[in-house]
């Protein structure tokens, strides 16, 4: 750029020795700037790419002229003004200020045009309207099984039980032996399950939450009042009422003075809280190696109140869960004194309770996570 060449020299080197020559030199510079400015790509309406292009050429022009280090005006200050002879200093200063004001005002004006054009052409979707409501992200809900657990916790916490959890991978000792189910006992049949290959000592996926009875009594002296939520696994063929995994909640109460009446009273209280105040219960004899006597707890059908309907298969009763008084043989495995202590235990299928209460007919619905199903239980 010729201007650059001139502005790298002093006035003396250029042979400029009168105010008139100074003025005409500045006049030329101003014309040069105006030419650069009008040659700059014209501001057009366009998208943000267009804006970037415009801005870049505007910025180049700015740097050429008023860039701090190499801009033409800086050069003039250094090469013309500073070393100017005293009789020219004044006019150089004046001219320089005028040129500077002109350049700055022009650039500022140009900058506004570029911004305005960009603003106008920005598609509506890129503009932020702060008066619009924000995007609402749907928040998930608690799963039906989770909700049922929370209902169960509420009931049992309110009568003095606490909640503990245990491992899903168990040893045969905790899952069977210590619960008075020796090897080859037929009670293992319906619980034969997933063993874990590769470990030196055998492990399996727990078939029930009952192992936590043992683990808890091993760890703490009586009294014990716990409920144990968790997943359990059985080798079943999946159908409408079976999966290979389901949820249980175990209960265990052991103390010096717990009677069968406490057992029945607790069961009644639970049934009324869970299914409604009119609910009655009955106990049917059953068998579990770790309870004696054992019972299946039934409740009057919450749908028909006991008169018979589709849900209770016309019997008026629905089967709730298995339970019983703790078999004294179990105390032998945990160093509890069977002479002094007594207690009861129960094991409920939580999925089953949820299905009963909310009228769900197919187990798979609980685990497919179809939102059309989940939304029905907000
Ligand atoms: N563990 C038993 C089962 O899974 C249920 C149960 C628990 C029965 C505690 C009695 C006492 O079938």
Strand order of the largest sheet: 1-5-6-10-9-8-7
Number of helical regions: 14
Order of helices and strands: HHHHHHHEEHEEHEEHEEEHEHHH
What is the structural class?
alpha+beta
Q: How much helix is in the residues? A: 40-55%
Rg of Cα set: 44 Å
> Hey, roughly how much beta strand do the residues contain?
15-25%
Ends apart, CA distance between termini: 74 Å
Largest sheet features: 7 strands, mixed
Cofactors and ligands = phenylalanine
Describe this structure in words.
The chain is rod-shaped. It has helices spanning 2-7, 11-14, 19-39, 48-66, 72-81, 86-121, 144-157, 172-175, 211-219, 260-275, 328-333, 350-358, 363-367, 371-374, and strands spanning 162-163, 169-170, 195-196, 203-205, 224-233, 245-255, 281-288, 291-300, 317-326, 342-349. It is built from 14 helices and 10 strands. The mean pLDDT is 90. The protein binds phenylalanine. The site of phenylalanine has 11 residues, from strand 9 and strand 10.
Keywords:
single chain; 378 residues; alpha+beta; 7-stranded mixed beta sheet; 3-stranded antiparallel beta sheet; 10 strands; 17% strand; binds phenylalanine
């Amino acid at each position: 750029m010729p201007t650059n060449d001139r502005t790298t020299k002093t006035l003396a080197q250029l042979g400029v020795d009168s105010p008139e020559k100074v003025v005409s030199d500045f006049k030329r510079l101003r014309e040069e700037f105006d030419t650069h400015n009008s040659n700059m790509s014209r501001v057009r309406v366009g998208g943000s790419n267009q804006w970037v292009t415009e801005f870049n050429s505007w910025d180049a022009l700015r740097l050429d002229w008023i860039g701090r280090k190499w801009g033409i005006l800086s050069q003039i200050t250094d090469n013309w003004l500073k070393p100017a002879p005293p009789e020219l200093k004044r006019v150089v200063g004046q001219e320089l200020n005028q040129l500077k004001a002109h350049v700055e005002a022009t650039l500022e004006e140009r900058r506004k045009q570029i911004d305005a054009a960009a603003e106008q052409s920005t598609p509506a979707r890129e503009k932020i309207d702060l008066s619009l409501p924000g995007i609402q992200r749907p928040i998930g809900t608690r799963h039906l099984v989770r909700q049922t657990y929370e209902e169960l916790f509420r009931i049992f916490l309110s009568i003095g039980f606490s909640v503990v959890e245990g491992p899903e991978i168990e040893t045969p000792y905790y899952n069977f032996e210590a619960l008075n189910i020796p090897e080859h006992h037929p009670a293992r049949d319906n619980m034969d399950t997933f063993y874990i290959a590769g470990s030196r000592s055998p492990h399996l996926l727990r078939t029930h939450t009952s192992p936590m009875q043992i683990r808890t009594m091993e760890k703490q002296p009586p009294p014990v009042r716990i409920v144990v939520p968790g997943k359990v696994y059985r080798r079943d063929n999946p159908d409408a009422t079976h999966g290979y995994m389901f949820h249980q909640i175990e209960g265990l109460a052991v103390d010096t003075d717990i009677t069968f009446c406490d057992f029945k009273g607790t069961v009644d209280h639970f049934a009324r809280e869970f299914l409604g105040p009119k609910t009655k219960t009955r106990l049917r004899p059953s068998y579990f190696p770790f309870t004696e006597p054992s019972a299946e707890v039934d409740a009057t059908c919450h749908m028909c109140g006991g008169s018979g309907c589709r849900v209770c298969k016309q019997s008026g009763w629905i089967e709730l869960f298995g339970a019983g008084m703790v078999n004294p043989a179990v105390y032998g495995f945990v160093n509890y004194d069977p002479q002094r202590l007594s207690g009861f235990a129960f094991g409920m299928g939580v999925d089953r309770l949820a299905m009963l209460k909310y009228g769900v007919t197919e187990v798979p619905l609980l685990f497919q996570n179809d939102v059309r199903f989940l939304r029905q239980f907000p």
